[in-house]
Structures are given as structure tokens and as C-alpha cells.
Sequence to fold (204 residues):
Amino acid sequence: MFEVIKNGGWMMFPIILSSIVAMAIIGERLWSLQRKKIIPADLMAHIWQLHRDNKLDDAAIRRIKVSSPLGRILAAGLLNRKYGREMMKVSIEEVGRQVAHELERYLNALGSIASITPLLGLLGTVDGIIRVFSDLAIGGMGDPAVLSNGISEALICTASGLTVAIPSLFFHRYFERLVDDHVVHMEENALRLIDIMQGDRESI
Fold:
């Protein structure tokens, strides 16, 4: 492995650094974007139970707020439920935008890595080929094996860049879709909460 990195030239270092950052982002997002962490399955039922038992006080709402991103959104609506449907909707939308933004954390960086690493690989390859032909210009053609080995080593950078870019692009698209899915489900839950609190729906 060390020989491959060494043969790839100096451009291998930013590619390796990009791969480490990409793996860290992917691992963190896989952990943070789990559905059970974002949208607990029993949260709406719990709120409904508190509402029926007249236990939906400020302390209960604070616990709901810190429980999950969905809880944070629903708590904003619950705090403003006495001001009517429109105020509940506005407060939920304001917090919802903040939560959606937080769910997209690091995705721009991951997308940038997916776009940049092939270019870094190409730059490293071009630099390697330039060096090969510079050596040929000085020393002559000599052994053709030297030329083929030099070009082979230069292409290591391109292969390495693509190796980092392909999974980064895949996970970037996957996480974008996952965030969109979470946002849609949180919106559905928020609308159900508004209906319940305003008397337009009787149960979960």
C-alpha cells in the first residue's frame, strides 16, 4: 500500500485526506440520520396520551423538544397551540427549516469531495506524465518498459481519485434522499398535530 501511495506522487496526500474526511462524514451521517433518532415511532402517540390526560404542560413540552428533531418541531407548535392554527403552522415551519438545515450538515462537504477528488487524481496523473516525458527528453527513449511503468504509476492518481469519488457521490445522493424523506414525514406529523390540537382530529 505504501508503495502505491509513493508511486502516485505528491497528489496522493490530498486524495488520502479527502478519503478520511469522506469516511468520517459518511459514518457520522449514517449514525445521526437513523429514522428512530429523527422520527421516534411512538412520539405522536405519547403526545396524544398527554393531551388526553391534560398533562401537556411546559415541562412535558420541554422533554418532547429535546427528545428528537421531530420533537423539537412539534414542541414549537405545542407552545403556540393556544394562539390558533395559523400561529402553530408558522412556528412549526420556522423550526422545521432549522431542523432540515441541520439534517443536511456536512452533505455539501461530501458532495465537494465527490466532485474534487477525480480532478485531483487527474492533476496528479498529468503531473506524472509530464515528469515521464521530461525524463525521456533528457535520457532518450532507452527501455520502453520505463515509459510504460512511468505512465502506469501516473495513472495511480486517477484510479485513487475515482475510488474516493464514487462512494462519496453515492452516499451524498443517498443522504440527500434520506433527508428529504425525513422532512416529508416530519411535515406529515406536524400537520396531524395541528389537526389534533385544533380539534379537527380526534385521535392519532
